[in-house]
Amino acid sequence: MKAHFQYCFIGAGSMAEAIIAGLIQKGKATPAEIAVINRQNNDRLKDLSRRYGVDYPLDKAEAVRRARTLILAVKPKDMDFALQQWGEIIRMDQRVISVAAGISTAWIEQRLGAKAAVIRAMPNTSSMIGCSATALCPGQYAVEKDLEEAKQTFDAIGYTVRVTEQDMDAVTGLSGSGPAYIYYVVEALEQAGISAGLSQPIARQLTLQTLVGAAHMLLETEEEPAELRRRISSPGGTTMAGLETLDSHQFHQTLVRAVHRATERSRELGEAWSDSTVRS
Ligand SMILES: NC(=O)C1=CN([C@@H]2O[C@H](COP(=O)(O)OP(=O)(O)OC[C@H]3O[C@@H](n4cnc5c(N)ncnc54)[C@H](O)[C@@H]3O)[C@@H](O)[C@H]2O)C=CC1
Ligand SMILES: O=C(O)[C@@H]1CCC=N1
């Protein structure tokens, strides 16, 4: 069957939107080459169509059949039902990319009607502006060409790296959830600036420019973060006083624990669904 859509997103939530926005913005696909379906919220599909021009065919099964690549973007807990609905009609000549946390390629393969290529990806919501950090790994039926095409998809929306499947939970805990940790730090810094006497707009702008500047310093100088930090920290100065407070509250260890817990949670999400019924 001739593919009508380059991509059909199964799931129309925040991750699907972030990828759609990035793909269109970077010219990887035209809006007409993208279909999106969800469980029942037609208003959400209309809204995505109005804002991005993507298609939301009323015949959802037809949209699945007519796509070259299916992007599974439902919550892990909804994956089993979604694959009961759509898995049987997916063919060998189609490619399946799952962005779900914790769900293994083998688990997905067992729920497809055909031995289609399955690729697991873990992007993040910075896909929306072409700045994702995405890790990819292949399932057992994915060949080099499938992986390369998946890589090209995610290259269009940011940085892409290939990992083994056993590393995917760690990727999820670090860079999948990662933007949330950074936003959390931004919230705290802005709040700190305000409580120290700055106006909200000034606290926000100074925080954001500090974040952007530090990120560019890391990328452009390629210096170690510890070295860049050392250069800011004059003995007996303000930075050292601030860093000592962070150390005394185990900020470093707390961040490490957060990433480890998110990694463990990704594993738990996979295990929670691993004993549900498999298509015979
Ligand atoms: N939000 C994030 O930052 C990231 C999320 N992910 C993964 O992306 C996936 C989606 O996450 P979100 O977009 O945040 O969730 P969300 O809750 O915003 O969206 C889920 C979508 O799936 C749809 N859906 C549920 N059952 C369906 C079915 N049977 N058929 C078709 N559509 C169905 C819902 O209608 C909804 O549109 C999750 O598995 C998550 O682990 C991965 C990386 C980052
Ligand atoms: O919170 C979650 O489960 C998803 C996976 C990575 C980011 N968001």
Automatic annotation (TrEMBL):
<keyword id="KW-0963">Cytoplasm</keyword>
<dbReference type="GO" id="GO:0055129">
    <property type="term" value="P:L-proline biosynthetic process"/>
</dbReference>
<comment type="similarity">
    <text>Belongs to the pyrroline-5-carboxylate reductase family.</text>
</comment>
<dbReference type="InterPro" id="IPR029036">
    <property type="entry name" value="P5CR_dimer"/>
</dbReference>
<feature type="domain" description="Pyrroline-5-carboxylate reductase catalytic N-terminal">
    <location>
        <begin position="7"/>
        <end position="102"/>
    </location>
</feature>
<dbReference type="InterPro" id="IPR028939">
    <property type="entry name" value="P5C_Rdtase_cat_N"/>
</dbReference>
<dbReference type="Pfam" id="PF03807">
    <property type="entry name" value="F420_oxidored"/>
</dbReference>
<keyword id="KW-0641">Proline biosynthesis</keyword>
<dbReference type="GO" id="GO:0004735">
    <property type="term" value="F:pyrroline-5-carboxylate reductase activity"/>
</dbReference>
<dbReference type="GO" id="GO:0005737">
    <property type="term" value="C:cytoplasm"/>
</dbReference>
<comment type="pathway">
    <text>Amino-acid biosynthesis; L-proline biosynthesis; L-proline from L-glutamate 5-semialdehyde: step 1/1.</text>
</comment>
<keyword id="KW-0028">Amino-acid biosynthesis</keyword>
<comment type="function">
    <text>Catalyzes the reduction of 1-pyrroline-5-carboxylate (PCA) to L-proline.</text>
</comment>
<dbReference type="InterPro" id="IPR008927">
    <property type="entry name" value="6-PGluconate_DH-like_C_sf"/>
</dbReference>
<keyword id="KW-0521">NADP</keyword>
<dbReference type="Pfam" id="PF14748">
    <property type="entry name" value="P5CR_dimer"/>
</dbReference>
<protein>
    <recommendedName>
        <fullName>Pyrroline-5-carboxylate reductase</fullName>
        <ecNumber>1.5.1.2</ecNumber>
    </recommendedName>
</protein>
<feature type="domain" description="Pyrroline-5-carboxylate reductase dimerisation">
    <location>
        <begin position="165"/>
        <end position="269"/>
    </location>
</feature>
<dbReference type="InterPro" id="IPR053790">
    <property type="entry name" value="P5CR-like_CS"/>
</dbReference>
<dbReference type="InterPro" id="IPR000304">
    <property type="entry name" value="Pyrroline-COOH_reductase"/>
</dbReference>
<dbReference type="InterPro" id="IPR036291">
    <property type="entry name" value="NAD(P)-bd_dom_sf"/>
</dbReference>
<feature type="binding site">
    <location>
        <begin position="73"/>
        <end position="76"/>
    </location>
    <ligand>
        <name>NADP(+)</name>
    </ligand>
</feature>
<keyword id="KW-0560">Oxidoreductase</keyword>
<feature type="binding site">
    <location>
        <begin position="10"/>
        <end position="15"/>
    </location>
    <ligand>
        <name>NADP(+)</name>
    </ligand>
</feature>
